[in-house]
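Hello again,

I reread your note about wanting to compare the complex against the isolated chains. To keep things tidy I'm splitting this into two emails, and this first one only covers the full assembly. Below are the input lines as submitted, including protein chains and any nucleic acid or small-molecule components. They are followed by the predicted structure of everything together. The single-chain runs will come separately.
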Amino acid sequence: MSGNEAVAHAIKQINPDVMPAFPITPSTEIPQFVAGMIANGEIDTEFIPVESEHSSMSAAIGSSAAGARTLTATSSCGLAFMWEVLYVAASNRLPIAMAVVNRGLTGPLNINAEHSDSMGARDSGWLQIYAENNQEVYDNFLQAYRIAEHPDVKLPIMICQDGFITSHAVENITLWDDATMKKFVGEYEPDHYLLNADEPMAVGPYAASNYCMEAKKAQTEAMKRAKKVILDVAKEFEELTGQSYGFFEGYRLDDAEYAVVAIGSVCGTAKDAVDQMRARGLRAGLLKIRVFRPFPAEEIAAALKDCRAVAIMDRSEGYNAVGGPLGAEVTAALYRAKSHAEVINIMYGLSGRDVRVEDIEQLFDNLVKLGDGEQVYDETCPYLGLRE
Amino acid sequence: MEQKAFHYKEIQGRQERLAPGHRMCAGCGGTIAVRNVLKALHPGDKAVIGNATGCLEVSSYMYPYTAYEDSYIHNAFENAGATLSGVETAYHALKKRGKIKEDYKFITFGGDGGTYDIGLQSLSGAMERGHDLVYVCYDNGAYMNTGIQRSSATPRYADTTTTPSGTHSDGKPQGRKDLAAIIAAHNIPYVAQTTFIGNMKDLYTKSEKAIYTPGAAFLNIMAPCPRGWKYDAPDIIEICKLGVETCYWPLFEVVDGKWILNYEPKKKLPLEDFLRKQGRFKHLFKAGNEHLIEAFQAETDRRWEELLTRCNA
Amino acid sequence: MSNLKPYERAEFINESTPWHQLTDGLQIYEPATSRQFHTGEWRTNTPVWNTEKCKQCLLCVPYCPDSSIPVVDEKRQDFDLDHCKGCGICAKACPFSAITMKEGK
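Full-complex prediction:
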């Protein structure tokens, strides 16, 4: 099944209470599948066909605060349109799940895969978990509520996948048993909710400056606590399914001297490149980031500690004249860990631009030169596959 | 819906669902609107109150003080309609699944800013989808919370900080938008326009109908603002009365698409009686500006005649 | 409400509250905590209720923006001076001149 279908299947197994949604390519299929499942009596989720994405997140906030397990799905400008209220969802500590099918933000209008949408929301306080392939996005979505609703966390969560590359491409995946998954995901039982007849609740105050720093500290501590919860939930999921997940996947990374760090579907291509380089005798490895928020800085730095050179691949421009968001965060993590690795940030795959195995093999060749002290690049973040 | 008898004293004796201690200005019309709408909830009935950002929200839920006896949610400026749509849908989902047992009503409040303008999209969506909720607009005719800027609800020639009167300006050039008509065009069961008259019977009965009629309902309440309209707070009662008697703010309902006029003044007062009481129209009374009052009067007359036609059709 | 920890109650939340004792998401789990805030301190004019002229028509009650004319057993009580802001609308609303505004608190 396609990545969108896989998410829809997870939704079916969860049977959440409410889903407001608005169509946008390439996430549109998800609300369509859900509407179809409701129409055929397969689930009894209440679907709200809202009139914009700002309203889908606003309605999700209302619904989640009311005590209902809520989700939505979007991409690109849809996510951008809800930017204002993403912050409200997180600051109100509402465990809303959102399937984000990554597509570049407009300018120019384009419908293909890029991470600028979810990267643009990286400061909003949402948990962010990315997938390489259809199996992963399905598995991630099943774990989403267990992480988000945990009393130590109570934060909204984005489950991301690359637009068209995984959302529409069909792969064979393993589906888990309905009853097992229903039991694993469990019920949403908030301590406080608007529709609690025994206790009224007020949500979304104006707060004078004397409260705000403390409130934000509390929110950031919840994000920190999410790290342990993510691993605990992954462990439980592994016991049920045999699928192993963590903050990231190290592919042939243990003894690697040259590593590529990346998020999403490009990692499939990168793994092939790693295998090719290994066959040629190079100690190449891949660090595939799964959890971007919270950012597992220490753990990433530790995994890369023996590397001579690292290429950090970004599928989103930061327009900061230095590189992309992943490049910035990984480099900072390496600096804090006093790493001696040579680092290069690579901008790739913008608006769905294809990346080939050979491109990454070339990248590894360059990493070797970098590691030897050669000046390979004259920019901090060169573009891969650019016509010059 | 069958109209119950109006037991005034019993109504006034009901629990105050908007408690004192909020930070609204002394004499605020918005709070009078909210108090009286909430009085229309039958004793013991449960409700969730929604609120768009604005004067009401920042003053009635300022951490850690909420002025509401019921559950309350504020989200952002433009999404009161969408937010409460989510709450109402959650209610249906949870009730259906047996997770909650009680009955709830859903009422959301927005100022004219968060309703006529930036909130119009989400209001329209909520009304069109037919959620069983009431959207109440406390219309004070400008973005008061940010310091009296014009909205599409601001009347013609009003002086606001973004349409100030001056040597090259007569105040707001456009007339006010007829939001009740726009919402009536959504074909919802109940729309009404009202304000503070006499013993509040008009406001009360319309609120009760809006709350207890199944489906979407919209109430537009003229809620004068002593600061923005520039009058002495106690004059609010007279200003509301003049608003109605001059036909600037007609009292009407649209019930299942049928327009009903609730009050026709025996003697229609000249608009300037209403304008004269408010400092925001002071410039209209300067010598040489008579044509402005005439133009505003002509607009008021035209709209009144249109309303009469609609109601008699 | 009895399940609330003490520091989750509005009466204990103030500018000295440390971050880990603020309610999650700055939510409030009690009704009408605003009563704890005495807006009566804002007043520069105070309403005076003449019980002899008052006919208990209750016409003043719905016009108070601050819900500061309590009603018990369908009879109005004296003003809630902890919260009354002295706007003077009630004095105008009364058809029997049973409410007058005096200067000062």
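For quick reference: The interface with chain B takes residues 10, 13, 23, 26, 28, 30-39, 42-43, 58-59, 61-68, 71-74, 80, 82-89, 91-93 of chain C (CB under 8 Å).

B.
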